[in-house]
Amino acid sequence: MEEWRFAVRTRLDADQARREGRRLAVALGFSRADAEQIALAVSELAMNLHRYAVDGELVLRPVADAARQGLEIESRDAGPGIADPILALQDGCTTGGGLGSGLPAARRQMDDFELVTHPSGTRIVARKWLTHPSSSA
Fold this sequence. Notes:
The structure is a single chain. By secondary structure, the protein is an alpha+beta fold. Helix content is about 35%, strand content about 30%. The protein is built from 4 helices and 5 strands, in the order βααββααββ. It is globular and about 40 Å long. The C terminus is likely disordered.
């Protein structure tokens, strides 16, 4: 399975990941609206890596299970972890002076969202599944 990796150290790295996320979503058959949701989630996760993380990396990969296909975004870093992950997923919570909408926005855009954090790093896995109009009407 092919995957795309982005070391995120600067805002330019985050912008590149966002563009590639959108491009990949379109190539996989996502609608324009879904591709924009994916691009937003990639952007929010990448900017969090840029602002808060050590050795942040985003990985984009196509995924499939028995019934569906989609796109997975994995964000991982080497620390310092998120002190209160439940609070961090609430709108308005910020530790860096931003709006506090990054993680909540990323979670809302995606179908699946998992966050595991500890002082030595954080791993977030988010998936968006392709939806096709029903052929029975």
